[in-house]
Fold this sequence. Notes:
CATH architecture of the largest domain: Sandwich
Distance between the termini: 10 Å
Number of domains: 3
Helix content: under 10%
Largest sheet: 8 strands, mixed
Shape: globular
Number of strands: 36
Strand order of the largest sheet: 9-8-14-6-5-17-22-19
Radius of gyration: 26 Å
CATH class of the largest domain: Mainly Beta
CATH topology of the largest domain: Immunoglobulin-like
Amino acid sequence: MKRLLSIILVIKAVSAFANDGVYFTSGNFLVPMQESSISVRKEILTITIGKGEMAVVDVYYEFYNPDSTKTVAMAFEAAAPYNAIYDISKNISHPYIYDFGVEMNGQKLEYRNTLIVSQWGSDSRDIGRNITSLDLTEWKNDIPDEYYDTPNALYNARLDSVIYADYGYMFEAVFKPGINVVHHTYSYKMSYSIGYKYNIPYRLTPATRWANSQIDDFTLRIKNENDMDYFISNDALFSAAPFSFVGGGGCAYPFVDEYGEHNTLVAGYGEGAVLEWHTKNFAPQFDMNIISIDNYLPSQCKYLNTWASKVVMTPDGGLFRFIGTSGDNYLVEAQDYGLVSKEGARVETFSAENGQGILTIKNREFKSVNIRQQPTTKSDVIGRIKDTRGKLPVVLKCLGVAEERDVNGCLEYYWYKVEVNGKIGYVREDIMTWNAIDTY
């Protein structure tokens, strides 16, 4: 089975995760408490997707101070976990960030941990751009019943108010006149969900809080020590320049998906390769996420048993999954990813209800599946299919979809219509996976 890596940028709000996922934290640009003259001349952001659960962030900054020597209170913001067990009022250091360090002009800076007003409340609304350190003698984790309670919620009885807190790493930075170099490193545990194996959010938008409201010279580097070699990026953020590989080969396919989103699929991450993106005058309007997509694209969809999918049909009879449009080509996937010329090709929607596509035993969870004579568990078994470990799965052609209803007319199950050994029968939908094309 192909293993995939994905960068998907802007999933609306980094803090809004489904209840079936665990969000540990996100990376963040270093930000000033208050600053109007110091600008960001350069940033080199290196993210390493490590083996196991950890990601490593290494950031090189060059700040320009046009004035005399000045001391600036700075902060690193780290979003509070979601669906992870912790108590924000018991420990003001982030439970999933490790090896945090900052050096400025070659000198290590001391920092202190604190809690700060988060950028998002429980309903994902932006509640302010100012970093406000919290007084924990007034803000407590004892939330009255009438307020929405989350692990990062804090209540002030005097103000009768609830706020939502993130973790802060605060330090004093002495900026000399001219260029100042800051080197910032840390590692953190990657989030996960049933839809992806890991998620590495990184907030780029705080860079606009500095005097120039941008990064004059920005470089993104992604190192991959994991064994996944594909990713997707959102071109709305990275449209100013192409991606390139340093130290290894790869291909980048810009495309527009069926929802109108502009993306780039990068494939073929060679051993030792570093993906690099560089631009000038970078004023990010969105934040970034690195997300594995082994369960995202149609061929790897383990959890979503969809009934319809777009396909690309070529004049010579080729059949491919449709990913998006890429200039004069379609970006497609079968055994691998590639481009198909639009000339002579067409896009169609295959669906199970129309008797198209193929079926395999779902997730390889079930060793044996019964084929019934009629679409009901009360019907006779006329056949059986079985998957064997180490062998390709049994593939059945989908001939349609039927419903099973109880005596009150309520839906009990959907069934796929199939043919096995010359007999027409039915197999229950919830134990099968439908795909538009056969790539086995």
